[in-house]
Design brief:
By secondary structure, the chain is an alpha+beta fold. Helices cover 20% and strands 39% of the residues. The chain is built from 3 helices and 8 strands. It has an 8-stranded antiparallel sheet. It is globular, with a radius of gyration of 15 Å. The relative contact order is 0.23.
Length: 149
Protein backbone atom coordinates (compact mmCIF):
# COMPACT_ATOMS: atom_id res chain seq x y z
CA UNK A 1 0.00 0.00 0.00
CA UNK A 2 1.27 3.44 -0.93
CA UNK A 3 -0.01 7.02 -1.22
CA UNK A 4 0.08 8.65 -4.62
CA UNK A 5 -0.97 12.14 -5.73
CA UNK A 6 -2.59 12.12 -9.16
CA UNK A 7 -3.58 14.78 -11.63
CA UNK A 8 -7.07 14.29 -13.00
CA UNK A 9 -7.41 12.35 -16.24
CA UNK A 10 -10.10 11.39 -18.74
CA UNK A 11 -11.42 7.91 -19.51
CA UNK A 12 -14.21 6.60 -21.72
CA UNK A 13 -16.39 3.52 -21.48
CA UNK A 14 -19.75 2.16 -20.44
CA UNK A 15 -21.47 3.23 -17.21
CA UNK A 16 -24.04 1.69 -14.87
CA UNK A 17 -25.40 2.70 -11.47
CA UNK A 18 -25.45 0.19 -8.62
CA UNK A 19 -24.80 -0.30 -4.92
CA UNK A 20 -22.73 -2.83 -3.01
CA UNK A 21 -25.78 -4.57 -1.50
CA UNK A 22 -27.12 -5.27 -5.02
CA UNK A 23 -23.73 -6.59 -6.17
CA UNK A 24 -23.92 -9.27 -3.45
CA UNK A 25 -27.12 -10.64 -5.04
CA UNK A 26 -26.57 -12.26 -8.46
CA UNK A 27 -30.07 -11.31 -9.68
CA UNK A 28 -29.41 -7.61 -9.01
CA UNK A 29 -25.67 -7.40 -9.77
CA UNK A 30 -24.70 -5.17 -12.69
CA UNK A 31 -20.89 -4.90 -12.67
CA UNK A 32 -20.21 -8.31 -14.25
CA UNK A 33 -22.60 -7.52 -17.13
CA UNK A 34 -20.99 -4.11 -17.53
CA UNK A 35 -17.57 -5.71 -18.05
CA UNK A 36 -19.04 -8.26 -20.47
CA UNK A 37 -20.51 -5.40 -22.49
CA UNK A 38 -17.21 -3.48 -22.43
CA UNK A 39 -15.15 -6.40 -23.70
CA UNK A 40 -17.87 -7.52 -26.11
CA UNK A 41 -18.43 -4.12 -27.74
CA UNK A 42 -15.12 -2.31 -27.25
CA UNK A 43 -12.51 -4.95 -26.42
CA UNK A 44 -11.56 -5.75 -30.01
CA UNK A 45 -11.27 -2.02 -30.79
CA UNK A 46 -8.78 -1.26 -28.00
CA UNK A 47 -5.32 -0.32 -29.26
CA UNK A 48 -2.49 -2.38 -27.76
CA UNK A 49 -1.26 0.61 -25.72
CA UNK A 50 -4.62 1.34 -24.08
CA UNK A 51 -5.00 0.94 -20.33
CA UNK A 52 -8.18 -0.60 -18.90
CA UNK A 53 -9.88 0.90 -15.84
CA UNK A 54 -12.91 0.39 -13.65
CA UNK A 55 -14.00 3.71 -12.09
CA UNK A 56 -16.37 4.31 -9.19
CA UNK A 57 -17.86 7.80 -8.96
CA UNK A 58 -20.96 9.92 -8.25
CA UNK A 59 -21.28 8.40 -4.80
CA UNK A 60 -24.68 8.94 -3.22
CA UNK A 61 -23.10 8.82 0.26
CA UNK A 62 -20.56 6.20 1.30
CA UNK A 63 -19.93 2.50 0.64
CA UNK A 64 -23.59 1.72 1.43
CA UNK A 65 -25.14 4.16 -1.09
CA UNK A 66 -25.49 4.06 -4.86
CA UNK A 67 -22.60 4.93 -7.18
CA UNK A 68 -21.70 4.90 -10.86
CA UNK A 69 -19.31 2.31 -12.28
CA UNK A 70 -17.45 2.82 -15.55
CA UNK A 71 -15.77 -0.04 -17.39
CA UNK A 72 -13.44 1.74 -19.77
CA UNK A 73 -10.05 2.68 -21.07
CA UNK A 74 -7.79 5.67 -21.55
CA UNK A 75 -7.70 5.14 -25.32
CA UNK A 76 -10.67 4.03 -27.40
CA UNK A 77 -10.35 4.08 -31.17
CA UNK A 78 -11.97 6.82 -33.19
CA UNK A 79 -14.75 4.50 -34.26
CA UNK A 80 -18.11 5.42 -32.81
CA UNK A 81 -19.20 2.96 -30.16
CA UNK A 82 -22.81 3.42 -29.12
CA UNK A 83 -23.35 4.27 -25.45
CA UNK A 84 -19.79 5.28 -24.58
CA UNK A 85 -19.51 7.95 -21.88
CA UNK A 86 -16.56 10.05 -20.73
CA UNK A 87 -15.55 10.49 -17.11
CA UNK A 88 -12.89 12.48 -15.28
CA UNK A 89 -10.92 10.82 -12.52
CA UNK A 90 -10.58 13.55 -9.91
CA UNK A 91 -7.14 14.88 -8.99
CA UNK A 92 -5.96 14.28 -5.45
CA UNK A 93 -4.41 11.84 -3.01
CA UNK A 94 -5.05 8.15 -3.47
CA UNK A 95 -4.20 5.15 -1.34
CA UNK A 96 -3.05 2.40 -3.73
CA UNK A 97 -3.69 -1.28 -3.02
CA UNK A 98 -2.09 -3.93 -5.27
CA UNK A 99 -3.08 -7.50 -6.02
CA UNK A 100 -2.03 -10.32 -8.29
CA UNK A 101 -3.92 -13.46 -9.25
CA UNK A 102 -6.82 -14.72 -11.31
CA UNK A 103 -9.47 -12.18 -12.33
CA UNK A 104 -12.02 -11.31 -11.10
CA UNK A 105 -11.24 -13.13 -7.84
CA UNK A 106 -8.18 -11.02 -7.07
CA UNK A 107 -10.21 -7.82 -7.50
CA UNK A 108 -13.00 -9.06 -5.23
CA UNK A 109 -10.48 -10.15 -2.57
CA UNK A 110 -8.65 -6.82 -2.77
CA UNK A 111 -11.90 -4.88 -2.29
CA UNK A 112 -12.53 -7.02 0.80
CA UNK A 113 -9.13 -5.96 2.17
CA UNK A 114 -9.90 -2.31 1.37
CA UNK A 115 -13.25 -2.36 3.18
CA UNK A 116 -11.64 -4.06 6.16
CA UNK A 117 -8.79 -1.52 6.20
CA UNK A 118 -11.11 1.51 6.21
CA UNK A 119 -13.42 -0.08 8.83
CA UNK A 120 -10.59 -0.61 11.33
CA UNK A 121 -10.68 1.68 14.34
CA UNK A 122 -7.77 4.05 14.19
CA UNK A 123 -7.54 3.94 10.39
CA UNK A 124 -5.32 6.95 9.59
CA UNK A 125 -7.15 7.81 6.33
CA UNK A 126 -10.67 8.82 5.42
CA UNK A 127 -12.19 7.99 2.03
CA UNK A 128 -13.15 10.99 -0.09
CA UNK A 129 -15.92 9.18 -2.05
CA UNK A 130 -15.25 11.22 -5.21
CA UNK A 131 -13.54 8.82 -7.59
CA UNK A 132 -11.92 5.47 -6.89
CA UNK A 133 -10.62 3.20 -9.60
CA UNK A 134 -9.15 -0.13 -10.59
CA UNK A 135 -6.22 -0.07 -12.99
CA UNK A 136 -5.65 -3.38 -14.74
CA UNK A 137 -1.87 -3.57 -15.19
CA UNK A 138 -2.00 -7.00 -16.85
CA UNK A 139 -4.24 -10.05 -17.08
CA UNK A 140 -3.23 -10.98 -13.53
CA UNK A 141 -2.26 -7.67 -11.88
CA UNK A 142 -4.53 -4.92 -10.58
CA UNK A 143 -4.08 -1.74 -8.57
CA UNK A 144 -7.05 -0.17 -6.78
CA UNK A 145 -6.79 3.55 -6.08
CA UNK A 146 -8.98 4.88 -3.24
CA UNK A 147 -9.38 8.65 -3.02
CA UNK A 148 -8.57 10.00 0.44
CA UNK A 149 -8.83 13.39 2.17
Amino acid sequence: MKIQHLDGFELAGFVTRTKNADEMEPAKAKIGNLWQRFYGEAGALLPAESKVYGVYSNYESDASGEFDVLAGADVLTGQAISGVEAITVQPGRYLVFSGEGEMPGVVIALWGQIWQYFNESGCPYQRAYQTDFEYYKSESQVEIYIGIH
